Amino acid sequence: MATRGSGRSGSEPGATAADVTGLSYSEAGAELDGIIEEFETGVIDVDRLVEQLERATEIVDELDRRLRRTRMRVEELVPRLEAIGQSDAGTGPDDEEEVEVEPAGGSTGSGGDPGPPGLF
Using CA atoms, how far apart are residues 116 and 119, in angstroms rounded to an integer? Predict the structure, then answer.
């Protein structure tokens, strides 16, 4: 529908798909909310109704494209982050601290004080 809307002899020059791509996600969402609110009031000119419906469709299509691209990118990056986390699992600072804390807790010898609270 974007092609049909951009080829019109424009009473609304801002209603092209290219302009939707220039909006931030939140700006596009806010514009879509405004259009929906206008539809819900039921007070809208028939000519404007068609224009707004075309614009809403362009916005929804663009936001859907962005979400799909983002999802694909996240699915691509998460395994890399998990691999980094797994490779660092045996050499992290937590392991070193634990090695240092265990002998200190066991060296008290009194048997009554296991060391600092929260370690075990």
Answer: 7
Specify the amino acid at residue 68. R
**55 class by beta-carbon count within 10 Å (0-12 exposed, 13-18 middle, 19+ buried):** buried
Q: DSSP string spanning 5-66?
A: HHTS--SSTT-SHHHHHTS-HHHHHHHHHHHHHHHHH----HHHHHHHHHHHHHHHHHHHHH
pTM: 0.54
Cβ contact 108:117 at 8 Å: no
* Tens of pLDDT, residue by residue, the chain (120 residues): 333 333 333 334 444 555 899 999 999 999 999 999 988 988 888 888 889 999 999 999 999 999 999 999 999 999 988 888 888 776 555 544 444 544 444 444 445 555 444 443
What does the angle CA 6 – CA 7 – CA 11 come to, to the nearest 5 degrees?
Answer: 75
